[in-house]
Write a structure and sequence with these properties.
Layout lengths: L3 E5 L4 H9 L3 E5 L2 H10 L3 E6 L4 H13 L4 E5 L2 H9 L4 E4 L4 H14 L7 H12 L11 H15 L1 E10 L1 H8 L1 H20 L7 E5 L6 E5 L10 H23 L1 H4 L3 E10 L6 H37 L2 E10 L5 E10 L7 H10 L3 H13 L2 H4 L5 E6 L20 E5 L8 H13 L3 E7 L6 H7 L3 E4 L1 H4 L6 H16 L3 E4 L5 H9 L4 E2 L23
Helix pairs in contact: 1-5, 2-3, 5-6, 8-9, 9-10, 12-13
Length: 546
């Protein structure tokens, strides 16, 4: 009987153990440069597992495999390799180093995902469902149905299961602001950080981490080892605080303070006791719901605390401004600064979090007034001759009676960024409101173009002086040809209408070089500037009415 072949360029010893888990398979190891040709030449090739780092070589291998309906699994050494694997539509990817169980699981999952496109829809849907049941594509964690089966004998033997539900809030906000590639990377960092933490924790024995299907949350299962006393509530409470600090530090190191400030984790605990009269799956899913409800309760209490923190911040004017430089792409000379307000309190450090809380508490106008006031304070102290100050203003703020064109002594130095947290419902009326500002020297920018409400219609209606491209368009633009085409078209449009394009969120040298080659006029991002640390609370201005 001929064995199925896993074609690979990897000599990792874990690969041999992985192939041993696959019935009637063998590994064929070849140099990376020979894989593309070998896919069509060698008989019995059913999957390709590749670790090559060269983008052209990887593209050639994937295209050769896909032309023959063969799935590809990519071993990724870093985040750039992960992005390439996703961009090339590899069936699976995994972070190196990987153990035999994960490699074997990813091969099985890739085979399920790779059913030919002309197969009946029902068959392809069934394959997709089966693949989803094995491993979460983005985090690499096993999924819940798989782990229930693996743990069934142990749960029956011990009679108890501890379920901890990890509720990660605002991960959808990361995707909304930065795009899906960034969220994928953050989820991967989160999963790795949680696993790293638990590996060094007292609860590591008999524990399993799983990805919760169709969600950003995770579940931690702990089956007490024989003779061990049950996990106490105090242990779990200590676990929560230490875990949050550990994951937040890893996210900040990998993705920056702005994204780390969006991170919050709430844990809920439930205990499941084995009862032979009841179906085990039902018991576990009930335990998950109970733990999720407990986590939600903690989140609600934290939300109420943040509202109180915001009221205190408004009273004490506890907001500081980080001035992000905007530079000329061709020369890297400072063109101006965007004023980004941040809360002095750690719970309100992120502007997105701060304004979300303000919206819930109906304090948007009060917060906007404070942020504008703090930003304007820097015109004389932070800006050089000829440099412009970009201030974020939501359309809703124009309805605030306290917001007038006379807030600034020299309007010619200010660019109002229309940041559309809310939609513009009446463009003719809104343009009339802008006219009064424009007539005395203010200029305007459309913020986050290409995201949310800030589409082409908004640009055409507002006739801005600057078009700020959304960070989700810029992230990984050096490896995404569709994004490059979109940005090139936007630059051409801006040149034809006397506007300038600003690329936000440039984090890497490759992104900077790409947007510069595409003709983008101005650039800002962590590649050029990292946010400053918050001032100590004692250094805030004396309390006054907001």
């Amino acid at each position: 009987m001929n064995k199925s072949v896993l074609l690979t360029d990897s000599g990792d010893v874990a690969l041999d153990a992985a192939v041993a888990q696959l019935d009637a398979w063998r590994a064929m190891v070849l140099p990376s440069a020979e894989l593309a040709r070998a896919i069509g030449r060698e008989r019995g090739v059913r999957a390709v597992y590749v670790t090559v780092e060269s983008p052209p070589a990887l593209r050639e291998i994937v295209e050769s495999a896909h032309a023959r309906g063969i799935p590809v699994i990519v071993g990724c050494k870093d985040d750039a390799a992960r992005r390439r694997a996703i961009e090339l539509r590899a069936e699976e990817w995994l972070r190196l180093p990987a153990d035999a169980d994960e490699i074997a699981g990813r091969v099985r999952s890739a085979l399920m995902r790779a059913m030919p496109g002309d197969a009946p829809n029902g068959d392809r849907a069934e394959r997709a469902e089966q693949a989803q049941m094995l491993y979460d594509f983005m985090t690499g964690l096993p999924t819940l149905p798989v782990m229930i089966e693996r743990m069934r004998p142990l749960i029956k033997e011990r009679g108890e299961l501890v379920v901890v539900y990890f509720n990660f809030v605002r991960y959808s906000k990361i995707e909304e602001i930065y795009g899906w590639e960034k969220l994928d990377a953050v989820l991967e960092t989160t999963a790795a950080a949680v696993k790293e933490f638990l590996d060094g924790h007292a609860l590591q024995a008999s524990r399993v981490m799983v990805s919760y299907t169709n969600d950003d949350d995770f579940i931690f299962f702990h089956v007490p080892p024989a003779g061990e006393t049950r996990v106490s509530e105090q242990q779990i409470t200590m676990l929560v605080g230490r875990l949050e600090q550990h994951v937040a530090s890893r996210i900040e190191a990998a993705h920056g303070e702005d994204i780390a400030a969006l991170f919050d984790i709430y844990l809920g605990l439930a205990r499941v006791y084995y009862n032979p009269k009841l179906r085990l799956e039902r018991l576990i899913y009930r335990g998950i719901r109970e733990a999720a409800t407990a986590a939600k309760s903690v989140e609600e209490r934290e939300r109420a605390r943040r509202v109180e923190d915001l009221r205190t911040s408004l009273r004490d004017r506890a907001v500081y401004v980080d001035y992000h430089p905007i530079v000329v792409a061709s020369t890297q000379q400072i063109f101006g600064y965007e004023a980004l307000a941040r809360g002095v309190m750690r719970s309100l450090r992120s502007p997105e979090v701060m304004f979300d809380v303000a919206a819930e508490a109906d304090l948007i106008w009060e917060l906007s007034r404070l942020c504008r006031s703090r930003a304007i304070e820097g015109i004389d102290t932070r800006l050089g001759p000829g440099e412009l100050l970009f201030i974020n203003v939501d359309p809703h703020d124009f309805a605030d009676p306290a917001f007038t064109e006379r807030e600034v002594t020299d309007p010619s130095r200010v660019v109002i960024e229309i940041t559309e947290r809310t939609a513009i419902k009446d463009y003719p009326k809104f343009r009339e409101r802008l006219k009064a500002f424009r007539e005395i020297g203010y200029r305007f920018a459309v913020d986050d173009a290409g995201s949310g409400y800030a589409g082409l219609g908004s640009i055409a209606n507002l006739e801005p002086d600057f078009i700020k491209l959304d960070i989700s368009l810029i992230n990984a633009i050096d490896t995404n040809f569709i994004k490059q085409n979109l940005v090139e078209s936007m630059v051409r449009f801006a040149n034809e209408h006397g506007a300038q394009v600003i690329a936000e969120g440039v984090e890497r040298a490759e992104e900077f070089e790409t947007v510069k080659q595409l003709g983008v006029h101005l650039v800002q991002g962590f590649f050029l500037h990292r946010p400053s640390s918050a001032p100590a609370p004692a250094a805030t201005a004396p309390a006054s009415s907001a």
